[in-house]
Amino acid sequence: MRSSFVTALLCLIATTCAAPAPGKDSDCDKTVKPGQSIQKAIDNAKKGDKIVVEAGEYYEQLTITTDGIQLIGKGAKLFPPKNYTKNFCTGLSRSFADGSETDAGICIHGKGFVLAPYDPKLPEHLKISKVGDYIKNVVVTGFNITGFNGENIALIGGKDVKISKNNLVDGTQYGFLTVGSIDTNAENNVITSSTLSIIAMCMDDKSGATFKNNHISNYYIALCGQTPGGELKKNTVKNCCIGPFIDPGIKGMKIIENTITGRNPYCLAKDGAGMVILGASNTIVERNTFESIQNNKTGVGIFISDDPVSGAKASGNVFKKNLFKFNDLDIFNNATTTDNVFRNNECASSVPDGLCNN
Ligand SMILES: *[C@@H]1O[C@H](CO)[C@@H](O)[C@H](O)[C@H]1NC(C)=O
Ligand SMILES: *[C@@H]1O[C@H](CO)[C@@H](O)[C@H](O)[C@H]1NC(C)=O
Ligand SMILES: *[C@@H]1O[C@H](CO)[C@@H](O)[C@H](O)[C@H]1NC(C)=O
Ligand SMILES: *[C@@H]1O[C@H](CO)[C@@H](O)[C@H](O)[C@H]1NC(C)=O
């Protein structure tokens, strides 16, 4: 049997720790059991360490600031502690109900970033005012995270961070929010709410963000797109008010092969569409399905508009090979521009006429 001394020695050899044999956990894995603190394991972890959290309930807010940490849940459920403690993600978003600062379940952040002061004109979350050192290569996977009053997972200033196979339930403001990051990857997560929470997933990143194969339901906005060139691919959206919402001034987002169905009965009567492009440009919207977006005869599959507030034009957007079924109205292009392109969309109704089946 190997002595703990040898194990410790092996752990000093970085390559041994960083690259365990395929299918076998490294000797350097840390295991957290119910009753133990996940944060303590994170605080003791070094760059590249893997932390396995066993099945059970954990009542903690977590902060990750070390590169390369892999946090792996094996049936682990994370809930808010009795009282929140302030950390870097506190106030990243505010309660839409009463304006109070909220907290995240898992807060992953780079060092030296500064968040801009709260701006009531941009109420949904804070922006970055100063870029610092990115936190790199963090992985969070396999967690069930429930009921944080801000984001169930928040990322600020990440690079190559991967969030996968988590169940994010009842994150009041967001399921997952990434701000000011590069090459964020969120895939195969399930994001839902038992009421109707605000935003399931949001990318307000610098570049390279991809949200893929996520399953979203019961959120007001399923996917918020605020990253130039960001990609929303093969996600399913059910019973939300708005599927992808692409923000004013955002260029070149790609919305590919998503399936958006139904409309939540609690959406505000006038609100909602399968997808909204508000003053965004050069978006590629291809091979998505919009189905059963019905709202007392005014439900819309895709709604396109200039932004009345900033004046940003919806321009150069391309809508190709999308499939529309059982919507009150399939496409409503209310932009003043004439350079949005509609090709081979399988649909039955549009305003203005003529956007279908070209
Ligand atoms: C995690 O959440 C999902 C969806 O809510 C649920 O089906 C699954 O049983 C949960 N896992 C655990 C370990 O509680
Ligand atoms: C939590 O906060 C409440 C109200 O601020 C306070 O009365 C209570 O002592 C706190 N509990 C703990 C465990 O800190
Ligand atoms: C549906 O729209 C009609 C016409 O605008 C309105 O009179 C009616 O109250 C609406 N019904 C519901 C359930 O909102
Ligand atoms: C469409 O655009 C016009 C202005 O160009 C505006 O008055 C109207 O409210 C818009 N309709 C919708 C549904 O946004």
From TrEMBL:
Limits of the Right handed beta helix domain = 203-347
Q: Does the keyword GTP-binding apply?
A: no
Q: Which domain of life is it from?
A: Eukaryota
Q: Which residues form a coiled coil?
A: none
What does UniProt give as the signal peptide span? 1-18
GO molecular function, a single term: lyase activity
What keywords is this UniProt entry annotated with? Lyase, Signal
Q: Gene3D superfamilies in the record, alphabetically?
A: Single-stranded right-handed beta-helix, Pectin lyase-like (2.160.20.10)
Question: What is one Pfam family matched by this protein?
Answer: Beta_helix
**InterPro entries to which the protein is assigned, alphabetical:** Beta_helix, Pectin_lyas_fold, Pectin_lyase_fold/virulence
Specify the protein name: Pectin lyase-like protein
Write down the species.
Answer: Ophiobolus disseminans
